[in-house]
Design goal:
Blueprint: E1 2-11, E2 14-20, E3 25-29, H1 36-48, E4 73-80, E5 83-90, E6 96-100, E7 103-105, H2 108-119, H3 123-130, H4 134-142, H5 145-156, H6 159-174, H7 180-213, H8 218-250, H9 252-315, H10 326-353, E8 360-361, E9 368-369, H11 372-435, H12 442-496, H13 503-571, H14 576-598, E10 604-607, E11 613-616, E12 622-624, H15 630-649, E13 654-658, H16 666-686, E14 689-694, E15 705-708
Parallel strand pairs: 3-14, 3-15, 13-14
Antiparallel strand pairs: 1-2, 1-4, 4-5, 5-6, 6-7, 8-9, 10-11, 11-12
Bound molecules: adenosine-5'-diphosphate and magnesium ion.
Adenosine-5'-diphosphate binds next to helix 1.
């Protein structure tokens, strides 16, 4: 594969970045942190869609300042076997597309599937050998021996043999060990002794009982039995009917006699009552007359009493006169009034002149008086005295007046009461004179009432006798009709009794059925036992089948176990992994040597079976790689990187060298510059594509094309 152009947007710190990859060495140059490695990461993301760092999510590749919902994307144009391809992935890994010749894919999974085929090397090789930081791969050579072994295992893939061995051990431990044979023997014995022989015997017995039951006419026998039993029931019913009829007819005689007796009683009572009727009517008429007389007598007595009370009222004395003459009383009032009037001039004089001086005319004598206030004082005394006197007279007159009013009212009331009494008395006397003096004979009324009551009693007796008579007659009629119905039923039952089976026929039918029932019960019992035995047989056969399968499985398991054991031995660290490691190491050592020669290194190198790395210098002397100088280490590191690439990933066609000069001081950098010239020649010779990422400006001379970031 050859990379042609990578365009990234919103990827890590790159808003927009396009890197062209012409043939030969492309150098990506720039200060630390500018985004060189991230540009390579973008290529890697386009190819396999991963984040490039353990513990980093793909999402983290999105430019941190990108707007929400805006996803970074990488587009990579490449060429594979003369066909151009274009792959585009979005950082949120929601979408991806690929176009490669005829192939077109538009989903992440489809793109991944196709890319796996197009790349042609395992994804893991791509990660561990092509895109790995140079420092990380170099370190394998200079690690502590124990860690080195692990890294070589990873590189050579022998770690999977180790894992496989552990897995096989677990599997072997899980395999079942079954004691099948003993169970098979036990089940077979049960089948041969307890199941099959009784099954055969019972089947035979079942056939013989079934044959005996064949041809037995059950219906005919059941019919005989049913008929016989019905006849017995009918016989019972007939006996009951007979008893009932006898009871109805024998009890009827006294009842008939009783009816006749009652009839006689009813006739007698009727005769007697008809004789008594006129006497009773007469007594009732008299009684009603007597009743009227009693009521008139009671009215008369009431009115008499009332008349006496009214006469008492009339006899009451008239009210006593107070001895006051109305005319005199009114004249007194008038005289008092005129005296009060005569006093008025003096009173007004007092009001006007009280405390006054000078001469005034006297209102009574009409003479001039010189000392008005004296006269006023005199008049005042006089007015006061007269007023007291007038008040006493006025009081007396008023008392007399009210006594007179009371008297007149009493007289009026008395007159009215006596007038009413007189009027009522007159009307009472009128009524009394029309009633005349009435008398009432209670004894006669009593005698008459007895006659009437006696008659009513007799009528009641007659009614009772008649009621009883009609009740008995109805009862007798009911009994007769019942007797008739019963007799009819007897006739129909007797008809049913014709052609009844004999007791002997009945007994034979019954015995036959009993015999069949016991045969059937036996058959049922046999069938039950057969059912159980067959079930058990089925279960045993099933279990035997299972055990047989299990035996087969156990055989397979045994083989599998054997295989596992052998595979485990094979995969043991001392066996297959060692073989593989040795084989890889042989090839790797040849390759390393080739590159060291290519780079003009003054030493050779060999990785031994125990994974120690030893270097040989021409003047003799062997030393371990850790002892090499910084510059020599870089040369060995690059040779090792190319050797590994050649061994495992040469088919890919391109390689990335990220920071080959990391942690080197200047003179050592110089040795890298020199090596890179050899690398350049090699790259041009082989046609492989190399991308070098570096912050070291001096390496630019070795690049065919430089991208500055
Ligand atoms: N998603 C991202 N958005 C913005 N910057 C990022 C993002 N991921 C990594 N970076 C920045 O990239 C820088 C490292 O870039 P890198 O390519 O490794 O540098 P160098 O050029 O030394 O190889 C870090 O400083 C980090 O802040
Ligand atoms: Mg870097």
């Amino acid at each position: 594969m050859r990379l042609k152009r990578m365009s990234a947007s919103n990827f890590c710190q790159h808003r927009e970045l396009t890197v062209e990859f012409p043939p030969g060495i492309t150098g990506i140059l720039g200060p630390n942190g500018v985004g060189k490695s991230n540009a390579i990461k973008a290529v890697r993301f386009a190819l396999i869609g991963d984040s490039g760092n353990a513990g980093t999510k793909v999402d983290d590749l999105n430019w941190q300042a990108a707007a929400a919902g805006e996803s970074g994307a990488v587009e990579l144009v490449f060429e594979q076997s003369g066909t151009e391809g274009k792959i585009k992935r979005f950082v949120n890994n929601a979408r991806a597309s690929l176009k490669f010749g005829e192939i077109k894919a538009n989903s992440v999974s489809a793109v991944n599937r196709h890319m796996g085929t197009i790349l042609g090397i395992p994804e893991r090789t791509l990660k561990d050998i092509v895109f790995v930081m140079q420092g990380a791969i170099e370190s394998i050579l200079f690690e502590r021996p124990a860690d080195r072994a692990k890294k070589f295992q990873g590189l050579f893939g022998t770690e999977s043999a180790e894992r496989l061995r552990d897995f096989l051990l677990q599997e072997v431990n899980k395999l079942p060990t079954a004691d099948v044979d003993e169970r098979v023997e036990r089940l077979q014995k049960e089948l041969d002794v307890d199941v099959d022989p009784p099954l055969r015997e019972l089947t035979k017995k079942q056939a013989s009982v079934a044959a005996a039951l064949k041809g037995f006419d059950r219906d005919a026998r059941e019919a005989v039995i049913a008929k016989f039993e019905t006849a017995v029931q009918i016989g019972q019913q007939l006996t009951e009917l007979n008893e009932r009829i006898i009871m109805l007819t024998t009890n009827v005689t006294p009842e008939v006699a009783h009816v006749a007796e009652l009839q006689q009683q009813a006739d007698d009572a009727e005769k007697e009552t008809s004789q008594l009727t006129s006497r009773a009517d007469e007594a009732r008429a008299k009684l009603s007359n007597l009743d009227a007389a009693r009521r008139a007598h009671e009215t008369y007595e009431q009115l008499r009493g009332e008349a006496e009370k009214l006469e008492d009222v009339l006899r009451q004395p008239v009210p006593m006169s107070p001895g006051i003459d109305r005319e005199k009383l009114e004249a007194g009032f008038e005289a008092l009034h005129s005296m009060k009037v005569t006093l008025e001039p003096k009173r007004s004089f007092v009001e006007t002149f009280k405390g006054g001086q000078g001469t005034v005319q006297c209102p009574t004598c009409l003479q001039d008086v010189h000392e008005a206030d004296q006269l006023a004082a005199q008049f005042e005394a006089e007015v006061a005295q007269k007023t007291t006197e007038f008040a006493a007279v006025d009081q007396q007159l008023r008392e007399g007046s009210s006594a007179l009013v009371e008297y007149e009212r009493d007289v009026e009331l008395d007159c009215a009461r006596k007038d009413t009494a007189r009027e009522r008395l007159q009307s009472v006397h009128g009524t009394l004179s029309t009633l005349g003096v009435t008398t009432y004979d209670g004894a006669e009324a009593g005698a008459l009432q007895i006659v009437v009551d006696d008659f009513s009693g007799k009528l009641m007796v007659l009614k009772n006798v008649r009621d009883e008579l009609s009740r008995l007659q109805v009862e007798l009629a009911r009994k007769k009709s019942e007797c008739r119905t019963l007799e009819e039923r007897q006739c129909s039952l007797r008809e049913q009794l014709q052609d009844r089976p004999t007791a002997d026929q009945y007994k034979r039918a019954k015995d036959g059925l009993e015999m069949v029932a016991s045969a059937e019960a036996e058959l049922g019992n046999i069938e039950g036992q057969l059912y159980q035995l067959r079930n058990r047989r089925g279960a045993i056969l099933k279990e035997l089948e299972l055990l047989k399968q299990q035996t087969e499985k156990t055989e397979a398991v045994k083989k599998y176990k054997d295989l596992c054991e052998r595979a485990r031995t094979l995969f043991h660290r001392d066996c297959l992994p060692l073989t593989v490691t040795r084989a890889f190491l042989a090839s790797l050592n040849v390759k390393i040597q080739e590159y060291l020669t290519l780079f003009g290194a003054p030493f050779s190198c060999q990785i031994k079976d125990d994974l120690t790395v030893s270097c040989n210098f021409p003047g003799g002397g062997e030393q371990s790689a850790e002892r090499l100088s910084g510059g020599q280490r870089v040369v060995l590191g690059i040779a090792f990187r190319f050797a590994v690439y050649q061994l495992f990933a040469a088919d890919l066609g391109f390689m990335v060298l990220d920071e080959p000069t990391a942690f080197l001081d200047d003179d050592r950098v110089q040795s890298v510059v020199e090596v890179m010239q050899s690398v350049r020649r090699y790259v041009h010779q082989t046609g492989m594509q190399l991308i070098v990422v570096t912050h070291e400006v001096e390496l630019v001379a070795a690049f065919d094309h430089t991208v500055r970031l």
